[in-house]
Amino acid sequence: MMTMPAVLLALSLAAGPELPTTPFAASDGKAYVLKDTLAASRFTVLVFFAHTCPIMRAHDARVIALAQKYAEKGVRVLLVDSEADATAERAAKDAAERHYPFPILVDADGALAHALGVRFATTAVVLEAGGKVRYRGGIDADKQRLRPESPFYLADALDAVLAGGSPKESETKALGCVLRFK
Amino acid sequence: MTPRPSPFRFRELLAAAVLLAPAAALAQACCTGASALAPARLTLHEDALVGVQLSPAALVGSWDGARAFVPSPAGATELRLQEVLVGSIRFLSRGQATAAVPFLETYRRLGGLGEFGGGFGDVVLSGRWDFVQAGESARIPGLAAVLGVQFPTGRPPESAHLPLGTDTTGAGSFQFSAGFAVEQSWAHWFATGTALLTQATPRKVGSITELLGLQVTVIGAAGYAFDTEAALAVTVAYTDSGDAWLNGAVAKGSGRARTTLGVSGALPLSEDWRLQGSLTTDVPAPFLGRNEPTNVGLTLMIVRSWT
């Protein structure tokens, strides 16, 4: 059951959230202005990351594979670290250790997570080039034990929007850790 | 005052609540939870669960009215097995409600007489509302309100039919509890504290109207959650209740207290099943209890959850 704040948030996201305009530091040393970053790809997937979350770690390989598979279709994957202790240095270390082929944006004040109504790590948000949210929820229906038969919500959503349609489920449950905000 | 036989009691559920709190999935700020009024607290993303809890316990002595610990006399034995069927369901994202239906069997041997009895205990309904989830703020700990009601569905001591009272399974009155829980996690570590007030309703025993004193329960726990979502925790619980009232007069020296230590663990068996267990002991030392039996107990619980 959706609570009233959740309903209001869903309506606001459908209309297009007010995304932060300030540049984000990132693990690759660059600064990302979200509007420009979104405009450069057909769709952008933001996956919310938590440094110590075992559920995020369990999904690393699945996210990397998804990023590689959909890159040629105009989809860009970015991780976002919205936890209070996020830094570019830690993001760089994590990206290197975990062999991420995409950067981790540093959102230490949680502005991006709050704008998108994200509370849990592994939450994936699919955004159009113009910033409209097309999907928000889990990467899949798993926590740590990844099951091949598990619904792959994020991939299904990407397939749908790339085909010009809408995801069958535009909101699903993300089963990751609580993001620790400031 | 002689400690009463030990029927299913609300505070035992409280202690079990913490000891059996879903250490499973405690990893990181992931699903931190400990301290709950319900014996089967839902972890972060769970919508519902059912569980069966088995708790064997042995009486090792008691605290007397002067807070001295008195070991059980030679030849006296009390063994108890408690099974509890529990179910929890989430509502409005931050709330959860739990029902617990206990069944007890007691074997008691005293002065050459041995006896076995049991039956349904007191049903407990409880609820919890998490205003702030543990781990979602670096500065503010998780904060929850907890409420509970114990229904007198078991057999109170005065209704026991067996000579040693082993068929006593209930307290004989409603008990209402309210309190709050704070908890926080730091990467793999977590800690929690719960404070509760419990008040029983008056009950009539023959010509006497008994009203138990207000009970205060304080529970603390700390532990470590592994990446596998297995977890270990240590817990300490202290309960203290004021003197009872009999026919409107204070029964001096009838207040009770108890200190319990525990070690608990959780082991996920799959995404949907987990095993939880604990080893608990009332601390058999002077001053840590009053007018209460002291037990050593083991608890195992199998949980099936839905996310």
Largest sheet of chain B, if any? 12 strands, antiparallel, barrel
How much β-strand is present in the residues of chain A? Answer: 15-25%
Largest interface: A-B, 29 and 27 residues
**Strands in their spatial order, largest beta sheet of chain B:** 1-3-4-6-7-8-9-12-13-16-17-18
Report mean pLDDT of chain B, rounded to a whole number.
Answer: 84
Number of strands of chain B: 18
Q: Work out the radius of gyration of chain A.
A: 15 Å
Overall domain count of chain A = 1
Q: Count up the helices of chain B.
A: 1
- The poorly predicted ranges of chain A are none
The appropriate CATH architecture of chain A is 3-Layer(aba) Sandwich
Helices of chain A, by number, come to: 6
- Strand ordering within the main sheet of chain A: 2-1-5-4-3-6-7
Q: Can you lay out the helices and strands and say which pair or pack?
A:
The complex is a heterodimer of chains A (182) and B (307).
Chain A: H1 4-15, E1 24-26, E2 31-32, H2 34-39, E3 43-49, H3 54-71, E4 75-81, H4 88-97, E5 104-106, H5 111-115, E6 124-128, E7 133-137, H6 153-162
Parallel strand pairs in A: 3-4, 4-5
Antiparallel strand pairs in A: 1-2, 1-5, 3-6, 6-7
Chain B: H1 10-19, E1 48-63, E2 69-71, E3 77-91, E4 95-110, E5 113-120, E6 124-132, E7 142-150, E8 175-186, E9 189-200, E10 203-205, E11 208-211, E12 215-225, E13 231-241, E14 245-246, E15 249-250, E16 256-268, E17 273-282, E18 292-306
Antiparallel strand pairs in B: 1-2, 1-3, 1-18, 3-4, 4-5, 4-6, 6-7, 7-8, 8-9, 9-12, 10-11, 11-14, 12-13, 13-16, 14-15, 16-17, 17-18
